[in-house]
Fold these 3 entries.
Entry 1:
Amino acid sequence: MTDQQQLWDAATAQAYDTPGQGMFSPEVLAPTVEVLSQLAAGGPAVEFAVGTGRVAVPLSEAGVQVSGIELSHAMIAVLREKVAEDQMRVVQGDMTTTTAGENFSLAFLVFNTIANLLTQDDQVRCFENAARQLAPGGCFVVELWVPQLRSLSPGRGGTLEVSEPGYLLVDTYDVLQQHVISHHVQFGPELSDGPAARIARTPHRYIWPSELDLMARLAGFELESRWADWDRSAFTAESRSHVSVYRLPSA
């Protein structure tokens, strides 16, 4: 089993969905589906790291033919509880090499997931893999957070990103390797029947927007649009995330 397979195991897959809340809330999903539907322009789409279908399922319900690529068997199993194979094709494999077909109008990779690839080479290969599967003029959409290195105090290697009842998120940085490990700490009365706290760690390689643009150019894409969020708000120096739309040349 690979490190990523161990990270996205059955327990994580079963706990991943939070219907109606957080990243599954209508406020998050509705603008995401609207933008992706418009960019698909009536053609088929492929989601890299489709997971449990958080975006793919409502996008399919909106009328877009969606296929998926997913490394985790456990995440695919949860997706299959929602949608059958004949309704949404999902290919198990790594998003740097696995293909779900050709001549897609849209490929998309959301919720910071390109950062799960821990080397620059693999991140470039992900762009190249998207380009291979798109039709001429097709676009690749990447949603990604902006590294918050300005939050690092001198001599400190980490930042507190979230502090709320029952949950802490602490990020620790290796700025030489562009690696960040997110430490998710859950605690409170709901855990009283077990350990006082639970901690999970997820590793990432962070990417600056300009570096992401260069990766896209190496794969033949040009940056078409960049917004701070799915509502198409302006991207600024203070934005903490971005939605970037890259397009291949037309035939």
Entry 2:
Amino acid sequence: MRIALGLEYDGSRFCGWQSQAEGCSVQDALERALGEVAGHPVRVAAAGRTDAGVHALMQVVHFDTNVTRPETAWVRGTNAHLPSSVAVLWARPVAEDFHARFSARERSYRYLLLNHPVRPAAAHGRVGWFHQPLDVARMQAAARYLVGEHDFSAFRSSECQARTPVRTLSRLEVRRVGALVVFDLWANAFLHHMVRNIVGCLVYVGKGKHPPEWLQEVLQGRDRARGAPTFPAAGLYFSGVRYEPRWGLPEGRGRELPFDAELGAVMDSAFR
């Protein structure tokens, strides 16, 4: 039997998604907890890998098991064995040909950036930070150059193992919510550090270092050295996965609050 799970986690407590020899990853914690419920070792495959410090609002994984458990056991039972920084949100049986990674049609990320002269403390690890005023309209104009199918070599890390740098970025939205600048990105897949490198370049445009057209020059140059430095992981969230309806999975977006208007309003009032 193949089971799909949706989960969220606070990435600041882990060394990333992928299993490590030290057992410090989200995958390690989840597999240990699932093994307790299943009564046998469990290996999971995820829709997307996240780096150390990157969070998830809706990660999707699948695993195989030879035991029968109610869906509530895979949720509440697994959560009972997980640290408080990880939670299974739902569980569904799926067909044997479903794969959390290869069946995904679209993935989304969200980056939350506190735009204020003073660094965050209560929200440390949950938001990025930039101290100079940012012009969101300029950033929105620059973002349009990246939408569509492109070679994103200028936005991939040197450690990226993807076979091709070509990706289709279907949407890239930038908006201000209180004291936050919120970036939402949707693509068929993402390269290593792609979102954080895009955010870094948009911040360069927003602070006036370059005009919006500069982002097109960076994209077409296909040279990582021409872009801005990689932005910190703290404000980055793997926010959802879209699958075809035939798999019968819940809507692929994660829970919005307090990662949108509510957090923005709180941060806005706190920094006035």
Entry 3:
Amino acid sequence: MLRVVVLVSGSGSNFADLLDRARSGRVAVEVIAVGADRECGGIEIARAAGIPTFVEPFAPPREAWSDRIAERVEAFEPDLVVLSGFMRLLSAEAVSRFEPALLNTHPAFLPEFPGAHGVRDALAAGVTETGASVIIVDSGVDTGPILAQQRVPVLEGDTEATLHERIKLVERELLAEVLAGIADGSIDLADHGLEHRLDQPDTAPEEAK
């Protein structure tokens, strides 16, 4: 059984789906804590479910705030950390404390449309399909190793809200599949992380150091 800490920032709809799957035995994980950068729906869901929570409001510098988040997470000794609608970038040092056991879902078919507005950017680009991805978080913006992804069509008349809701359904399935694979050993995060690191240049740009 994987011990998972989830980080949220918003309504928590994807987290609620994961929690339901976990508690019904459909995914072999135990959500042991939920953290956030603000009071939000995801935290309220966790509290209602009796899950330990913490809120660490963002305050610059980002590195110090990231360290506080990492320390709060590490206190629960998780096997895995899942970002579920967590809208803050963690510092590279904080990411390194968990990598490769730090996952994120993204509402686009990466490397297409990275960043905080993947759904909006897909609509603005006029594409006929976008997608959903589950990745290992690295120090970049949605640049980590891709563990699973699936295409989602853009329908005539789609708004950002309607498209995002359909993408969320796919994100939830993909995350469940990835977690099941990690739990049963068919997905080895260490292998994915090593492969990605070997593909990277030996030196990082100054702003990433």
